[in-house]
Design a protein that fits this description.
By secondary structure, the chain is α/β, with parallel strands linked by helices. The protein has two domains: about 5-10 and about 250-425, no CATH class; about 35-245, 3-Layer(aba) Sandwich (Rossmann fold). The protein is about 35% helix and about 20% strand. The protein has 15 helices and 15 strands. The protein has helices at about 20-30, 65-75, 95-105, 110-115, 140-145, 165-175, 175-185, 190-205, 235-245, 275-280, 320-325, 330-340, 355-365, 400-405, 425-430; strands at about 5-10, 50-55, 80-85, 125-130, 135-140, 145-150, 210-215, 225-230, 255-265, 295-305, 320, 350, 385, 395-400, 410-420. Strands 10-9-13-14-1-15 form a six-stranded mixed beta sheet. β9, α10 and β10 form a beta-alpha-beta unit.
């Protein structure tokens, strides 16, 4: 039997939001100024008739369509002939058609962006790092007169370094397609931390790279920073944006839970389906697990439609549902998991008939764990239910932990206790409100 739950909302740390189009146009003007000593590419002042490849592909970004359309418009205003290339490594089943499908799911089409889309998985090798690693680049991008990219800057879900998930990664892995993704993931976290930036530096030096536009979103997914960065200023600029992004990372309301229930996971939420920083699980060979948060058992209930069956990250959970298994595309998942080299993240958890059974089994497992020798019953257990690892402004908490959560600054309990069926509609109309 499951305990009753309270519904909570909290205020996450935020900064003043930016107007996406206004901020992007402002950064474009800054980059276009060829002032002495500036880290800006003077090429932005001479784009007339140039074919410019615009790399797009990161998921979960708010206002992505508006930002893309604005950047295309700015290129056209400068006289350029822009086109979009998917910059997403091996995603989309590692096929050109699959990557165009991912772009469509993001709202990026020729009609919405205002320019052609060109996809291929073929690459050219522009050079090698000092250690001999080949540096791959999408053939359409390599053939263009200029390259630009737009991406969010945030902590990576598999490693910690000075450059993590952002512009350098989009260059090295996103535009390097499956070949670069496989190569740089083969060495695990060390390769991502050390080799990925080196590959990106070679691309900055040898390709016709013009500029990157890095954005930072706060915990409520509002745009709070946008920087236009040329070749000479991109590394320092991205490091600054990553520091800001780290300071805004959301977390669970308490550091220890018997059970964490994640209603949905997916590639549109995190590259690993669930953000490893939020759930406190890496499942990477050779890498220590995070000290906090501490989760006794994790149940994930559904896969987002935008994932197209790619369930990389399902191995981070202990329990799941028949619905999740039915939504899984084994070929897409296998391809993505093997490309990353992190096979543990693709393992299938214990499969239960439905969501409620998955939560009950997770609780039973957590309470009989040798790490929990006390004889607590379900009514005293700590269960946290979140919609996904991106949306942590609202959540359900089991009655035994309600008082502790309510004492956390910025968190408020809404209504009384209720029973849950763990259905998606609970989030649209929370019980007992």
């Amino acid at each position: 039997m499951l305990p009753r739950f309270g519904y909570f909302r909290r205020s996450l740390q935020t900064l003043p939001s930016l107007d996406p189009e206004k901020a992007l146009r402002q950064e474009w003007r800054k980059l276009s100024q060829d002032s002495a000593g500036a880290a800006s590419p003077p090429e932005l002042g001479s784009l007339h008739g140039k074919r410019v490849a615009l790399g797009i592909g990161s998921r979960g970004i708010q206002n992505l369509v508006l930002l893309t359309r604005t950047l295309v418009a700015l290129l056209r205003e400068a006289g350029a002939e822009p086109f979009i290339v998917p910059a997403m490594g091996s995603h989309g089943g590692a096929t050109a058609a699959g990557q165009l499908e991912v772009l469509r799911d993001l709202g990026i089409t020729e009609a919405t962006a205002g320019c052609p889309l060109r996809a291929t998985m073929e690459t050219v090798v522009l050079g090698h790092t000092a250690e001999g690693l080949p540096v791959h680049l999408d053939t359409f991008a390599a053939d263009a007169d200029g390259i630009m990219i737009l991406n969010r800057i945030k902590p990576h879900t598999s490693f910690t370094g000075e450059l993590e998930s952002g512009l350098h990664k989009m260059l090295a892995i996103g535009l390097g397609k499956e070949k670069a993704a496989s190569l740089l993931h083969a060495g695990g976290s060390r390769s991502l931390r050390e080799d990925m930036p080196k590959v990106a530096r070679v691309l900055l030096e040898k390709s016709r790279f013009l500029a990157g536009f890095g954005i930072v979103e706060d915990a409520a997914q509002n745009l709070v920073a946008l920087r236009g960065l040329g070749k000479r200023g991109m590394e320092a600029g991205e490091k600054e944006l990553l520091t800001l992004a780290r300071s805004l990372m959301p977390s669970l309301p308490l550091p220890e839970w018997d059970v964490l229930v994640v209603d949905e996971m997916g590639k549109d939420i995190s590259g690993t389906g669930m953000d490893t920083h939020v759930i406190g699980r890496l499942r990477l060979r050779g890498e220590p697990e995070p000290v906090t948060p501490r989760i006794g058992a994790l149940a994930v209930l559904r896969l987002t439609a935008a994932s197209h069956g790619n369930a990389l990250g399902i191995g981070l959970a202990d329990f799941t549902t028949a619905e999740m298994l039915g939504a899984l595309d084994f070929e897409k998942t296998r391809r993505n998991v093997l490309t990353t080299g992190n096979i543990e993240r693709g393992r299938i958890p214990i499969v239960c008939a439905d969501a409620a059974e998955a939560v009950r089994e997770a609780l039973h497992f957590a309470l009989r764990s040798p790490e929990k020798p006390d004889a607590r019953g379900p009514q005293d257990a700590g269960i946290l239910r979140i919609r996904n690892t991106l949306r942590l402004q609202e959540f359900f908490v089991s009655e035994g932990r309600c008082e502790a959560v309510q004492a956390v600054p910025g968190i408020g309990k809404m209504g009384g206790l209720c029973d849950l069926n763990f259905i998606p509609e609970d989030w649209d109309a929370p019980p007992n409100l």
